[in-house]
Specification:
Largest sheet: 3 strands, parallel
Strand order of the largest sheet: 1-2-4
Shape: rod-shaped
Distance between the termini: 147 Å
Order of helices and strands: HHHHHHHHHHHHEHEEEE
Radius of gyration: 57 Å
């Protein structure tokens, strides 16, 4: 190492006597040794060792190349020594402050680098960006900061791709289950992140087609349900809607034929119900007729919406029923239990030993010759 290089490293001017700065050099060597011993990483320890060796070599070169020039004026020598000592001490303090600042910055950068890596691993992108921005402010143009920003960019892209893949998978599951609204929402979330995503675009098309098929299927089911319940008007309306939705549907002609067939069946049932109604009407003599009620029951089954049949059925059910004992029922008690309010119970001649409990308005007649006898048991 040349003397000029050594002086430059030690911060000496060409006229400075290095021997007056030796105490300061020794202090600096001790400080640098402390930096080596307390380095936070192997990389920084190596750097501090290189700087220490360079500094020690500079001290040896400068101290060995100077000779003491005799001074006749002792006071002047003392003044020079004092001046050089003060300058050396100031230089040492400044140099030490610079080294301390640099060392603290390097320690801070190393700490921030660790925090940045942890933030990237945990995908806390805001924290990671703030950390590497702070590194950039401490060391402008730092390759470490540039590498960190690139890692953040890659991590964000990877996370986005994972989100897209997950949402597309959930969208497919919703499609297979026929949950169109959920599938559409997931597909749109993918398109919001990647407007050109072909898989999401295809799923939107499938959703549109699936909804249309579902509507068509529901219309066909509505036609079938309406026919099964005899609602011809509703069936025809559903068929008209189906023809608008899907004019080429091959089931239209089949369903139309079924409607016509069902209309014919209903007409035949109505005709038969009308004939039964006429037969029951002939039996309406103002008295209850079990045969007429049976005819009307069948007519109501065939044409339940007919108001005429229902009116006659309700009317004839209000007529009084004549119950004969013992022809219809063996005992008076059983006849009472089976009777409706205001029915007539005719009791044939004979003696009937039973207790009676009458809980409804009834008309009870015995034989005209007075030979109908009811014996009520007495309590002991």
């Amino acid at each position: 190492m040349k003397t000029t290089e050594a002086r430059k490293i030690l911060g000496l001017d060409s006229d400075d006597d290095p021997r007056s700065f030796i105490p300061g050099f020794e202090e600096t060597v001790k400080y640098k040794q402390e930096l080596v011993d307390n380095a936070p990483s192997d990389e920084m320890k190596f750097r501090y060792q290189q700087e220490l060796l360079e500094y020690q070599a500079a001290v040896k070169v400068v101290a060995g190349s100077q000779k003491i020039r005799p001074h006749t004026d002792f006071i002047v020598v003392l003044l020079l020594i004092a001046s050089f000592s003060a300058i050396g001490w100031w230089g040492y303090q400044w140099y030490q402050q610079q080294w301390n600042a640099n060392a603290q910055a390097e320690v801070k950068i190393a700490q921030l680098q660790t925090e940045g890596r942890l933030a990237i691993v945990s995908r806390k992108w805001v924290n990671a960006e703030k950390t590497y921005q702070e590194i950039e402010s401490l060391d402008p143009g730092s390759q470490l900061a540039a590498t960190g920003f690139e890692a953040i960019k890659r991590g964000k892209l990877e996370e986005q791709n994972q989100q897209l893949f997950y949402r597309l998978g959930e969208c497919q599951a919703a499609l297979e289950a026929g949950r169109w609204d959920e599938a559409e929402k997931l597909a749109n979330l993918v398109l919001n992140q990647d407007s050109k995503n072909e898989s999401a675009q295809r799923k939107i098309e499938i959703i549109t087609q699936g909804r249309r098929k579902q509507v068509i299927s529901l219309r066909m089911m509505a036609i079938t349900d309406a026919l099964d319940s005899g609602e011809i008007s509703a069936a025809r309306q559903a068929l008209a809607t189906l023809q608008k939705l899907d004019p080429q549907n091959p089931n239209i002609s089949i369903l139309s034929s079924r409607i016509d067939t069902e209309v014919s069946k209903i007409q035949r049932r109505n005709d038969k119900a009308a004939a039964l109604y006429q037969d029951a009407l002939k039996l309406d003599t103002g008295e209850f007729s079990a045969k007429a009620i049976l005819l009307l029951d069948e007519a109501r089954r065939l044409n339940p919406s007919s108001p005429e049949i229902l009116a006659l059925y309700q009317k004839m059910n209000t007529y009084t029923v004549a119950i004969n004992v013992p022809v219809d029922f063996p005992t008076i008690s059983k006849a009472i239990a089976a009777a409706r309010p205001r029915d007539l119970i005719r009791i044939a001649p004979g003696t009937y030993k039973e207790s009676l409990h009458i809980d409804k308005p009834l008309r009870i007649e015995g034989s005209a010759d007075g030979k109908t006898i009811i014996e009520l048991p007495c309590k002991d």
